[in-house]
Amino acid sequence: MENRFTSLIEAHQDLLSRGFDKNYNIINSYTMVDEDGKSYKPSQVSVDSFYRFEGASNPEDNSIIYGIKTKSGTKGTLVSAYGSGGSRKFSEFIMNIKDSQENTMLKKLNRAKDELVEMVQKRDKVIIAVVAGIAVGAVLGLLLAPKRKSLTERIVGKLKQMGDHGSTYKKNLESKIKDYSL
């Protein structure tokens, strides 16, 4: 993320102005708490933004501030040193957030894949039904056409409706597949 701030204080003020008003602290690799004592797991939070700052003369003065959002809707900041002076539990907590978000993304992709498979299976059934309907309609039309013109016209109308339904279903399926494309 591009850092447009010259100091940690500027970045913190910007985050405060955007509603990141809680102060979070890391307890261990799997627990973060706010100033009210409410705890959060990595799967319950996401990183909205972060800014790193390097010390002018000492690498030990490196710091980082994260804008954190929780699933419960609260927003706040996490501040720590980074690099050689950084906290291991802090780094592990941030990595666990990333892992949790990747797992969530994989679950969503798997659900999307399952939906597509189900839609393709339904599409195949619709195609079979349309083909069977056309075949039955054609046979009935040939048998009954000379005797009952109105019945033949109704059968042809129904066949057209089935064809239109199949085309609409195909367009919807293609649209869904496009939505799930990466």
Portion of residues within helices:
40-55%
Shape: rod-shaped
String of helices and strands: HEEEEEEHH
Helix and strand composition category: alpha+beta
Q: Tally of extended strands?
A: 6
| Secondary structure tally, helices | 3
What is the CA–CA distance across the termini? 23 Å
Number of self-contained structural domains:
2
| Neighbour order of strands in the largest sheet | 3-2-1-6-5-4
The average pLDDT value, as a whole number, equals 77
Query: Residue ranges: pLDDT <50 for 5 or more in a row?
Result: none
Largest sheet descriptor: 6 strands, mixed
What is the CA-based Rg, rounded? 30 Å
DSSP strand content: 15-25%
Describe the structure.
It contains three helices and six strands. The chain has a six-stranded mixed sheet, sandwiched between helices. The protein has 182 residues and is of the alpha+beta class. The protein is rod-shaped, with a radius of gyration of 30 Å. The protein folds into two domains: 8-86, no CATH class; 107-180. The protein has helices at residues 8-17, 88-144, 149-180, and strands spanning 22-28, 31-34, 39-40, 45-53, 63-70, 75-81. Helix 2 (88-144) packs antiparallel against helix 3.
